[in-house]
């Protein structure tokens, strides 16, 4: 096994150990434009490239909200499959579910204020679906985290929306930003799942299956 080290001195060695093979054989591609997913993959000291998957994320009629993230993660993995022959593709999708309603990315500031007003003082769930694929082999799963918001004031919601512009975030918030620090009382489950990628579970599946 080749001994290759990154600047921190252990990344590649970890990959070699993790996959029991030389890293270039198991090239990893993250099929996502999300800076949060990229950050979490980097924090896990994985080496990867990004190829953005541009897909229509409209939910199929009648699909239950909790099934949507895996469906969309598979769609994202499919969309770049032809550019990733022989590589491990990781794709994900995150939705916020309030009762039976899916809260997607807000369309504008008024929609963001409306979403946060609905989330205020309540528990909702965040579901991230993940699809990991290498050619014909595929493992898909979803992870659910419960998030409890404190009662948010109108001023707090308006401050967040106008200063943080959460238009690229499902449910109009980011747990890793000011609103998460000040407004979230409790979570049950994986914090990183709320940020967009249950990275610990991704590592487990990579190690076990790929
Ligand atoms: C709830 C929540 C979501 N998010 C983000 C994660 C995702 O980037 C985004 C949900 O949108 P997604 O459609 O899952 O992902 P994306 O469009 O950003 O990227 P891609 O489809 O290319 O993979 O919301 C946070 O960063 N923090 C949070 O607390």
From TrEMBL:
UniProt-listed Gene3D superfamilies: 3.90.950.10
InterPro entries hit by this protein: ITPase-like_fam, Maf-like
Alphabetical list of CDD domains matching this protein: Maf (cd00555)
Record has Cytoplasm as a keyword: yes
EC numbers: 3.6.1.9
Keyword annotations: Cytoplasm, Hydrolase, Nucleotide metabolism
Localisation: Cytoplasm
Keyword flag Cytoplasm: yes
Enzyme kind, highest EC tier: hydrolase
Active site: 93 (proton acceptor)
Family, similarity comment: Belongs to the Maf family. YceF subfamily. Belongs to the Maf family. YhdE subfamily.
HAMAP family on file: Maf (MF_00528)
Role description: Nucleoside triphosphate pyrophosphatase that hydrolyzes dTTP and UTP. May have a dual role in cell division arrest and in preventing the incorporation of modified nucleotides into cellular nucleic acids.
Protein's recorded name: dTTP/UTP pyrophosphatase
